[in-house]
Specification:
The protein has helices at 43-71, 77-87, 89-109, 114-151, 154-196, 201-209, 213-221, 228-233, 240-280, 301-309, 312-346, 357-367, 371-385. 8% of the residues are buried. It is built from 13 helices and no strands. α1 (43-71) packs across α2 (77-87), α4 packs across α11 and α6 (201-209) runs parallel beside α9 (240-280). The chain is 72% helix and 0% strand. The chain has three domains: 43-148, no CATH class; 157-280; 312-386, no CATH class. It is mostly helical.
Length: 386
C-alpha cells in the first residue's frame, strides 16, 4: 500500500515501521546481579541514626547512672538517682569541658545555629571516643597476641598464676575484713534501733537484705535483749543519713567480696589445670588424670555428649600435644594482623597509591564483584577495630 492510498481508508491506522536490524542481546556475565546483602538507600542512614544516637544515650546517660544507681545507698528511687547524678559529675564534667571549648571555637568562627550545635556535640563525643579507642586498641593489638604466646608455655603461665594467687589472696583478705567491719557496724545499728524502737528500723531491715544470708539468720534468730552492748549503743544516733552511708558500705564491701571470690575460684582452677598438664606430659599411658574431677550435670545433653567425646585420652592429646603449637601459630597469625593494622594506620594519609593491606583486599573484592567476600572482610575489619 502506497502512502497516497492511506487516506482512502480512514479506519486504518498507520502501521509503525519495525527496523530489521537485530538488537544485541547482553551476555549473562554482563548483567549486574543484585547481591543478597543489598538494602534500599534509606535503610542504612536510618539504621545508622538509630544505632548512633542510642549508643550516645546509653554511653553518656543511661549506663553511668545505672552503674552508680546500683551502688547507691539511698532507700528511695529519687535518692538513688540524685546520688548517682552527683557521683557522675566528674564524668560529665570532662565532657562538658570539651563541649564548652568546641562551642566557643565554633561561636568565634561562624554563627552558631542548631545544626552546628549538633555537630559540636558529635565532635566532642567522638573526641572522647577516639581517646578511648586509641588506648584500648593499642592495648588489644599487643596484649592478645602476647597472651596467645604465653598460653602456649605452661611453665611460664604456671609461675605467673602463682604470682597472681599471692596478690589476689591479699585482696581477698582485705575485702573480707572490710565486709566484717561493715557487718559489725550493721549489728550495732540493728541492736541500737531495736532497743530504742526507732522509726528507722525499716531502713535497717533493707540493709540486712544485702548482708550474707547465714550471718543475717544468726542475727535475726538471736534474742534481742537490752544487754550492756545495746545500752552502750543506744546513745549512738543512727539517723537516715548515717544508715545511707552504712548501706553503701555494705553494698560495696559485698560486691568486692563476691568479685574477689569469683576471681579466686577461676584462678585456682587455672593453676590446678596447669599443674595437671605439667604432671600428665610424662604420663606413659597418655590419659589425662585430673586433680579435681570434672563435674557435669546429669540431665544436660551437651554434658553427656561432651563426656562421651572428650575422653581422658582425647583430653591428653589436646592439652599435651596439640594446644601448645596451636596457640603459638595463633599468636603468629594475630601478630601479622597487628602489623597489618599498624601499617594501614601509618599509610592512611597516602592518596597517591593504595598501600593499606585491608584497602587492597576491599579493592580486589570490588574488582572481582565478590560481594560475599566484601561483606565478610568488612565484618572482620569492624570486629577487629572494636
Amino acid at each position: 500500500m502506497s502512502p497516497s492510498n492511506v487516506t482512502d481508508f480512514p479506519n486504518v491506522t498507520s502501521i509503525p515501521i519495525i527496523p530489521t536490524t537485530e538488537m544485541p542481546i547482553p551476555l549473562l556475565g554482563d548483567i549486574c546481579q543484585q547481591p543478597w546483602s543489598y538494602a534500599p538507600g534509606n535503610v542504612l542512614p536510618t539504621l545508622w541514626r538509630i544505632v548512633y544516637w542510642t549508643s550516645q544515650a546509653l554511653t553518656w546517660i543511661v549506663l553511668p547512672l545505672m552503674q552508680s544507681y546500683s551502688m547507691a545507698g539511698d532507700f528511695t528511687v529519687l535518692g538513688k538517682l540524685r546520688s548517682s547524678f552527683f557521683e557522675n559529675l566528674i564524668y560529665y564534667g570532662s565532657f562538658a569541658v570539651i563541649f564548652v571549648i568546641l562551642l566557643v571555637y565554633v561561636a568565634l568562627k561562624r554563627t552558631l545555629t542548631m545544626e552546628y550545635l549538633k555537630v559540636v556535640c558529635i565532635t566532642a563525643s567522638n573526641t572522647w571516643g577516639l581517646i578511648l579507642l586509641i588506648i584500648l586498641l593499642g592495648y588489644g593489638l599487643i596484649e592478645i597476641p602476647r597472651s596467645c604466646f604465653e598460653n602456649s608455655q605452661y611453665e611460664r603461665t604456671l609461675n605467673y598464676l602463682y604470682f597472681k594467687v599471692a596478690k589476689l589472696s591479699a585482696e581477698k583478705c582485705e575485702a573480707e575484713e572490710k565486709l566484717e567491719d561493715a557487718l559489725d557496724e550493721v549489728q550495732q545499728a540493728y541492736e541500737s534501733v531495736v532497743a530504742s524502737q526507732s522509726v528507722n528500723k525499716r531502713y535497717v531491715d533493707i540493709i540486712l537484705t544485702k548482708c550474707p544470708e547465714d550471718w543475717r539468720e544468726k542475727l535475726l534468730n538471736r534474742t534481742v535483749e537490752v544487754s550492756d552492748r545495746s545500752r552502750g549503743t543506744r546513745g549512738i544516733a543512727y539517723n537516715e543519713k548515717t544508715l545511707v552511708r552504712l548501706h553503701q558500705n555494705v553494698i560495696r564491701a559485698s560486691q568486692a567480696r563476691h568479685r574477689t571470690k569469683a576471681q579466686w575460684d577461676v584462678l585456682i582452677k587455672n593453676a590446678v589445670d596447669c599443674e595437671d598438664i605439667s604432671k600428665n606430659e610424662v604420663n606413659p599411658t597418655r590419659t589425662f588424670k585430673r586433680t579435681i574431677p570434672r563435674i557435669l550435670p546429669a540431665t544436660s545433653t551437651i554434658g553427656v555428649v561432651k563426656e562421651a567425646l572428650y575422653t581422658p585420652k582425647v583430653e591428653w592429646y589436646w592439652k599435651c600435644v596439640i594446644r601448645n603449637p596451636l596457640f603459638k601459630c595463633l599468636g603468629y597469625l594475630l601478630t601479622a594482623l597487628t602489623v597489618a593494622v599498624l601499617w594501614s594506620e601509618m599509610t592512611f594519609s597516602v592518596t597517591s597509591s593504595t598501600l593499606s593491606i585491608y584497602a587492597l583486599i576491599i579493592k580486589f573484592a570490588k574488582e572481582t564483584e565478590s560481594y560475599l567476600f566484601m561483606d565478610v572482610c568488612t565484618s572482620v575489619l569492624i570486629s577487629q577495630s572494636n
